[in-house]
């Protein structure tokens, strides 16, 4: 996957962090994070949901190569993707919370619509 923001991390750390955030978002339905991380997570989560909407074996294997938990992949294909069958994108929403107290980073909640 091509990433646009470096997020102050090396590529291996950044890729794993974003994989973990997408997995947590699909597992829990919402996560609290910084604004720039949420924007990258949104891009990747929407790609995973679009792949799951296809529903074939190749799409399932592509998603399994990215998402770290098999139970989340099963839930994605069986429950989440059918909810968005008639929707063309826009599966997530980002709501701003304000600034974090320690370093004044913009905090947001990203959730599935």
Under the CATH scheme, the architecture is: Alpha-Beta Complex
CATH topology value = 50s Ribosomal Protein L17, Chain: A
Largest sheet, spatial ordering of strands: 1-3-2
Estimated share of beta-strand residues: 15-25%
According to DSSP, the number of beta strands is 3
Separate helix tally: 4
Outline: globular
Overall number of structural domains = 1
| C-alpha termini separation | 23 Å
Secondary structure category: alpha+beta
Tell me the CATH superfamily.
Ribosomal protein L17
Please estimate the helix content.
Answer: 40-55%
Mean pLDDT comes to: 94
Q: Nearest-angstrom radius of gyration?
A: 14 Å
Biggest sheet statistics: 3 strands, antiparallel
Strand and helix layout:
Blueprint: H1 11-28, E1 30-34, H2 35-54, H3 57-64, H4 70-83, E2 92-99, E3 106-112
Helix pairs in contact: 1-2, 2-3, 2-4
Structure description:
The protein is an alpha+beta fold and 113 residues long. It is 53% helix and 18% strand. It has one domain (11-112): Ribosomal protein L17 (50s Ribosomal Protein L17, Chain: A, Alpha-Beta Complex). It contains four helices and three strands. Strands 1-3-2 form a three-stranded antiparallel beta sheet. Strand 2 and strand 3 form a beta hairpin. It is globular, with a radius of gyration of 14 Å.
